[in-house]
Amino acid sequence: MPRLLPVEFGASAEVLDMNGPPRNPREYLRQVQLEASQCPEVVVAQIDPKKLKKKQTINASVAGCHAAPLGFSPSLSWQQHQVSTFSGVRQSIAKNRTHWSSHTLDDNVLMPKLTDEEGWKRFCFGETVYLGASSGHTDAEPEPALDYSKVGFPPFLSIVSRLNQSTVLMLLEILISWFEEHDFVPQLGRWLYALLACLEKPLIPEAHASIRQLARRCAQLRSTLESQEDEKLPALNLLICLVARYFEQNDLADQPE
User: Fold this and answer.
1) At a CB cut-off of 8 Å and minimum separation 6, what does 248 contact?
2) Contact 174, 117 (CB under 8 A)
């Protein structure tokens, strides 16, 4: 390359101390020239293949949802109505987020730390569901008194309005992961609906993967229901509808019978 600065580069450079700091600007420029002259034109990275074996590409399933049993899937008009209602909820949250986030939380509302996964499960589900799921008994009745530590904190606007997008996505992943190994409970449905309402579009890839996982799990659970009167069916249909219709995961959508 052409030289831009007229810096001498001759015999004096041979005695230049490359290990010490330059003593003046001219010496600094001579050091730079000398280092550049010693660099090879082509550099090849030395890669240890053994270190790459732990970070291989993971083949993710792109399968669609389980088909709904006959009579268990909602009508197209029902799905369109739910999407319209959900859109209105999202607009209301976005419009009033600043107002609700400025509200002071009650003394008994102690939100877990960001990285406390078990704390978030206990916060959202309450001890009745959280401890019941841990011990294998999920049919325990909540106590008569409204104790949120027992029955779980609902997703009040004053709570969800404080969650930024990274927290919303993290909490979605925690709850969906829990749902993969446990049955559906009302507390889970309320929180999933609220978090989806706070999830901003366009979605990042991690959000796409999470909500698709949610829809597939809902469809899988729906396929095991024995009656159309099961109280879980409307909630499962709603979550599948929102993921497929509102968030445009059309391959997961229920088709009219």
Assistant:
1) none
2) yes
**In 150-186, which positions are buried (b, 16+ CB within 10 angstroms) versus exposed (e)?**
bbbbebebbbbbebeeebbbbbbbbbbebbeebebbe
Q: Which residues contact 251 (CB under 8 A, 6 or more apart)?
A: 64, 244
CB-based contacts of 154: which residues, under 8 Å, 6+ apart? Answer: 148, 187, 190
pLDDT band at 233 (very low <50, low <70, confident <90, very high): very high
d(CA 232, CA 189): 9
For the chain, helix (H) and strand (E) counts, in that order, are 10, 0
Q: Where are the alpha helices (DSSP H) in 102-232?
A: 117-135, 148-151, 157-160, 165-181, 186-198, 205-222
Q: Confidence band (pLDDT; 50, 70, 90) for 41?
A: confident
Nearest to 150 by CA among 111, 174, 124: 124
In this structure, the number of other CB atoms found within 10 A of the CB of residue 103 comes to 13
Counting Cα atoms < 13 Å in the Cβ hemisphere of 55 gives 5
Distance CA(116)–CA(130), nearest Å, equals 14
Per-residue confidence band for 135, with pLDDT thresholds at 50, 70 and 90: very low
State which of 3-7, 39-43, 226-230 shows the largest mean pLDDT.
Answer: 226-230
pTM beyond 0.85: the answer is: no
Q: Is the pLDDT of residue 205 over 50?
A: yes
